[in-house]
Amino acid sequence: QVQLLESGGGLVQAGGFLRLSCVASGDISSIYGMNWLRQGSGKERELVAAISTNGESTYIADSVKGRFSISYDNAKNTMYLQMNSLKVEDTAAYYCHAELFGNPGGYWGPGTQVTVSS
To answer: Residue 61: CB partners within 8 Å, gap ≥ 6?
Structure first.
């Protein structure tokens, strides 16, 4: 079992920044990758960024490239999403997802809301 908990969401004006955190606990030794996904109202869930826990591989979606960055702190078992130059269209619930060996579905956090006002 793995537990994930996101934090750092909130209300920010367009052009502002936020840093999301996702802390993993439990059987974290089985985690090999972690992802940030988001889902806006009436929209499909979108993969925003991904990282391997060894830090060797990262992915940033084209829609946020150049504005968002992802990192993982092994010492703190925490994944971060630094979001700069936020746009109204970044408004969404942001979810943390962990990929584990032997567990195709992985685990999800409860999500954190990001709202960007114009």
So the answer is: 46, 47, 48, 49
